[in-house]
Amino acid sequence: MTDPMRAQVFQHVPFEGLGSIADWLRRRGAVVTSTRFFEEPTPSVPRLDDADILIVMGGPMSAKDEQRYPWLVAEKRSIAETIVRGKAVLGVCLGAQLVAGALGGRVYPNREREIGWFSVTSVAPPDRPGRGNDRPAWHLPPECPVFHWHGETFDLPTGARHLARSEACEHQAFQFGRKVIGLQFHLETTPEATRALVAHGGHELTPGRFVQSTEQILGVGADAYATINALMDGVLSFLVSA
Description:
Helix content: 25-40%
Order of helices and strands: EHEEHEHEEEEEHHH
CATH topology: Rossmann fold
CATH superfamily: Class I glutamine amidotransferase (GATase) domain
Number of helices: 6
CATH class: Alpha Beta
Strand order of the largest sheet: 2-1-3-4-9-8-7-5-6
Number of domains: 1
């Protein structure tokens, strides 16, 4: 009998949880432990020796806001150590920025805020993999509408493979080595998760080229969620298959 998968979750605010990722983990019979940074002023960041996958979720804070949130220093160190140990790592939105930062990439304000349902396009892989860029790569569809809620972006870490871009943001997704993926967008979101984001972040829905209204954000149908959640299932399965 094989041991169950062990997943560690880093969660930054109560209203940005696992979404559809929770269903994938349940189907796998995974043992899930969570570090909820919002629950205590100076949370301890665990060593992840026993984890099979680390999932770093989103949040409204900046990845650079270490004075206001001192635990960001320890969190980025933990992410970097987990990558060095060869564990699977998935970063979502803020999580992707933290993973990029842990790998030495610069995090900074994007030229546009991007909030709502906008398409990303896949980026063709290079002919030859570079350092940290071992094949195979995870592939998005050529073009796919996904859910966004971000105002910052990142430079690709050295050796990372660029996976996706959008009109508003060049670096939407990357892969480092075989087991690390960062997604600027939210494939895990569900109708409940979207409503929670609007409830807590609706003040950010001020006019912008890539900022939709509450009605536009909440008005998509079930098919849109089914599509992105299936993509998230694919990301997770890819990361743990090596």
